[in-house]
């Protein structure tokens, strides 16, 4: 029975199907913590080591499950720490509820301890954001917060003064209009069906095309069978931006893999040469990788109307759910007998896969980072969940891990933040304890939130963390050189013995240095129950080669070497060797 404002808050969450909250207790949120303690048989609290990780976990939980992710933090600094993870949710469209504490209601704005008005701070990140004013206010706003986060696929934030959290039900004066029980915990989805005129227009454009291409993003993840049917009907290659990885299996005859710096050459060729582009659930942000405006006729399937035409001009807009929109479109599409555009992409993919095989089976020492991703791919189950950070490690996963079966993959897409890989994996293991869960991270990203290894140990989570150790901020290093022509500067990292650190936190540890033993050690680690860290020591001079190097990038790279990049001799030799292998 709910006796306090905190009780009402927790009971409302339970009514909305929330079964997990990630966070850290503190004096500014202790009233809610007590309500969670007395209901721990119905809702679990996962204690983390940093609030930023709690927000990442809530975001990951929402991405993996499609349900509401929830995080909790105390007043002042605790709430502030949530922000990076919440922006990750905002930019990737993940439904997340953040609950924070405030200091005593009658001491706010008086320079009291931890006096941060978090509702004002969260104004930009949240689609719903409010301060609870009393026990009678709680149910109304928490209901609306849950509903809005799910409906708008964004962040909702509710903050509550610490004294109000323990306020007895009935003590707070209820307004005459605030009738008890006037809100509902029902969330109903709309039809999400596009208009018939737009469907007909889209079909006409695609039927008239000779070289159609499909760009399938995160909004297409639940529309695999429909995507494949449309691709087959049109004879269209399917390009998958990073958040769309897994929209169709990577070994499908229609798949050309990713796009952008970490993409494939066949995907880039398809985008550069298509005459019609069907964008399904994607707002891939790198405009320079789209067809030039006017080259291809654009059609977009998008749930959010304000994202229509955001990256590329379109002539038909199907505003609705991806699967339902494709189902409506398919019967109107003619079977394309000319498969030459698709066949060109397939021939390109055959060459690309051979190149990835060659790069993934190198025997050089120091070990190439691609080797680790290549060997991991062989050992992943068909239901594995794989999380990664932002950096060169994202490239290795994007190119060397083949999505198949019911595998899931995610990372920080539009925010592209470091440090999310381990928290995402913790969320996955919390939601799906029977599935194989792997975090593929860099040494820079892991050290930002390395304390969460203790979270894995505390809850016995079967998370395997593969850390690519090159002692450098690799992506930043190559950006300095290739994009700006500047010598590498302040990118080197102090080496860390991750095996020793892991064991100090109660986590198993392995080290890989010899590429000949990479698969064997990974297999042993993955088969060992419980959390584990696999430190893979790799060549710091191996670049994440783009699908095609343009003249400007080559010039900048040469300029950076000439201006005094450290280890420029080794870097030049490594890049030259990679390019030779690519050409022969």
Automatic annotation (TrEMBL):
What's one Pfam family the UniProt record gives for this protein? TPP_enzyme_M
Lineage, top-rank taxon, reads Bacteria
InterPro entries listed in its UniProt record: DHS-like_NAD/FAD-binding_dom, POXB-like, THDP-binding, Thiamin_PyroP_enz_cen_dom, Thiamin_PyroP_enz_TPP-bd_dom, TPP-bd_CS, TPP_enzyme_TPP-bd, TPP_POXB-like
Q: Which UniProt keywords apply?
A: Thiamine pyrophosphate
Domain annotation Thiamine pyrophosphate enzyme N-terminal TPP-binding: ranges: 4-113
Keyword RNA-binding part of the UniProt annotation: no
**What PROSITE patterns would the database entry show?**
TPP_ENZYMES (PS00187)
Q: Does the keyword Cell inner membrane apply?
A: no
Q: In this protein, which residues make up the domain named Thiamine pyrophosphate enzyme central?
A: 199-329
Q: Which residues form the Thiamine pyrophosphate enzyme TPP-binding domain?
A: 389-535
By its UniProt entry, which Gene3D superfamilies does this protein fall under? Answer: 3.40.50.970, TPP-binding domain
Q: Which family does it belong to?
A: Belongs to the TPP enzyme family.
Protein's recorded name: Thiamine pyrophosphate-dependent enzyme
């Amino acid at each position: 029975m709910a006796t306090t404002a905190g009780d009402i808050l927790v009971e409302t969450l339970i009514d909305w199907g929330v079964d997990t909250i990630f966070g850290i207790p503190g004096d500014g949120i202790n009233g809610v913590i007590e309500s969670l303690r007395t209901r721990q048989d119905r809702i679990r609290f996962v204690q983390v080591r940093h609030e930023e990780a709690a927000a990442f976990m809530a975001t990951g939980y929402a991405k993996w499950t499609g349900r509401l992710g929830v995080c909790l933090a105390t007043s002042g600094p605790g709430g502030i720490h949530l922000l990076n993870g919440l922006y990750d949710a905002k930019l990737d469209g993940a439904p997340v509820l953040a609950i924070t504490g405030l200091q005593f209601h009658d001491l706010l704005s008086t320079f009291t301890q931890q006096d941060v008005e978090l509702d004002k701070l969260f104004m930009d990140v949240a689609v719903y954001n409010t301060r609870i004013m009393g026990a009678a206010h709680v149910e109304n706003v928490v209901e609306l917060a849950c509903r809005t986060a799910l409906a708008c696929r964004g962040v909702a934030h509710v903050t509550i003064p610490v004294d109000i959290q323990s306020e007895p039900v009935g003590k707070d004066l209820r307004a005459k209009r605030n009738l008890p029980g006037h809100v509902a915990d029902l969330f109903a989805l709309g039809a999400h069906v596009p208009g018939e005129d737009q469907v007909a227009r889209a079909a006409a454009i695609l039927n008239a095309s000779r070289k159609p291409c499909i760009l399938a993003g995160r909004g297409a993840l639940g529309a695999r069978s429909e995507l494949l049917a449309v691709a087959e009907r049109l004879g269209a290659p399917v390009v998958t931006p990073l958040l769309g990885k897994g929209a169709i299996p990577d070994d499908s005859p229609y798949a050309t893999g990713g796009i952008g710096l970490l993409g494939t050459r066949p995907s880039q060729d398809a985008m550069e040469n298509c005459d019609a582009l069907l964008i399904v659930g994607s707002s891939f942000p790198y405009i320079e990788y789209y067809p030039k405006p006017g080259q291809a006729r654009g059609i977009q399937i998008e749930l959010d109307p304000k994202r229509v035409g955001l990256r590329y001009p379109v002539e038909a807009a199907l505003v609705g759910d991806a699967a339902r929109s494709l189902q409506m479109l398919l019967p109107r599409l003619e079977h394309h007998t000319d498969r030459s555009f698709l066949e060109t992409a397939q021939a390109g993919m055959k060459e690309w896969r051979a190149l990835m095989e060659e790069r993934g089976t190198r025997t050089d020492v120091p070990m190439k980072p691609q080797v680790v991703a290549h060997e991991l791919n062989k050992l992943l189950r068909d239901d594995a969940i794989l999380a990664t950070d932002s950096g060169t490690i994202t490239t290795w996963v994007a190119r060397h891990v083949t999505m198949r079966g019911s595998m899931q993959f995610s990372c920080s897409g539009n925010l592209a933040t470091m440090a999310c890989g381990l928290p995402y994996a913790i969320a996955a293991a919390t939601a799906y304890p029977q599935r194989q869960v792997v975090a593929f991270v860099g040494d820079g990203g892991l050290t930002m939130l390395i304390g969460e290894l203790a979270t894995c140990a505390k809850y016995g989570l079967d998370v395997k963390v593969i850390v690519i150790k090159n002692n450098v901020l690799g992506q930043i290093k190559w950006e300095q050189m290739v994009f700006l022509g500047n010598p590498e500067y302040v990118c080197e990292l102090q080496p860390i013995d991750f095996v020793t650190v892991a064991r100090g936190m109660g986590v198993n540890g392995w080290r890989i240095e010899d590429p000949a033993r990479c698969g064997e050690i990974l297999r042993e680690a993955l088969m060992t129950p419980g959390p584990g860290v696999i430190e893979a020591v790799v060549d710091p001079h191996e670049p994440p080669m783009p699908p095609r190097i343009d003249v400007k990038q080559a010039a900048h790279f040469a300029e950076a070497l000439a201006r005094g990049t450290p280890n420029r001799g080794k870097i030049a030799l490594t890049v030259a060797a990679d390019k030779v292998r690519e050409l022969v």
